[in-house]
Design a protein that fits this description.
The protein has about 170 residues and is an alpha+beta fold. It has helices at about 25-40, 120-135, 145-170; strands at about 45, 55-60, 65-75, 80-85, 95-100, 100-110, 115-120. The protein has a single domain (about 10-145), classed as Peptide Deformylase (Alpha-Beta Complex). A hairpin with a 7-residue loop joins strand 2 and strand 3 (about 65-75). The chain starts with about 20 loop residues before the first helix and ends with a helix. Bound molecules: nickel (II) ion (NI).
């Protein structure tokens, strides 16, 4: 699985619900977890690998890998907190993002079992970040306009630098 990066319009599209959770879904979940580990990330959503389906995986240190299918965030705390986020689709970019401190999510796992989970701290944060991907949203959308512009400019410059290096290497 190749991870799509900023500028790819697939990242901006809304993912469709998974209508049937079956063996294919198990395979998709396994592949997403593999790609997540390969990228050394903590969360990865379908659209990031060009799969416009409502599925994401999360694997936080000290926890088991978790699969979320057709998720709904059913509660969010009033309290908002800042937390530094990054994204496998915007490599090298990190910024403080303000979001609810705690959420409650309802989803199905890859075996088709429904579950509800309350999450705060890093788990709550990564779940909210991945959920955004299903809506075609990226964490930089939640920054102020000047900050977003600055970050994108720096990212593009850095990407161009990487490409020039590739050219030099032939
Ligand atoms: Ni991301």
């Amino acid at each position: 699985m190749t991870i799509l990066t900023l500028g790819n319009e697939v990242l901006r599209r809304k993912a469709a619900p998974i209508t049937k959770i079956d063996g294919e879904t198990v395979k998709t979940a396994e592949e997403l977890i593999k790609a997540l580990h390969a990228g050394k990330g903590i969360g990865l959503a379908g659209p990031q690998v060009g799969l416009l389906q409502r599925i994401f995986v999360v694997h936080i240190e000290g926890d088991i890998p978790r699969v979320f299918i057709n998720p709904s965030i059913i509660e969010t705390s009033q309290e908002m907190v800042k937390y530094e986020e990054g994204c496998l689709s915007i490599p090298g970019v990190y910024a403080d993002v303000l979001r609810p401190r705690q959420i409650k999510i309802q989803a199905w796992n890859e075996k088709g079992r429904p579950f509800t989970l309350e999450a705060d701290d890093i788990l709550g944060r990564v779940i909210q970040h991945e959920y955004d991907h299903l809506e075609g949203a990226l964490f930089i959308d939640r920054l102020s306009e000047p900050k977003r512009t600055r970050i994108i400019a720096r990212y593009e410059k850095q990407q161009k630098g990487i490409k020039d290096e590739d050219t030099l290497r032939g």
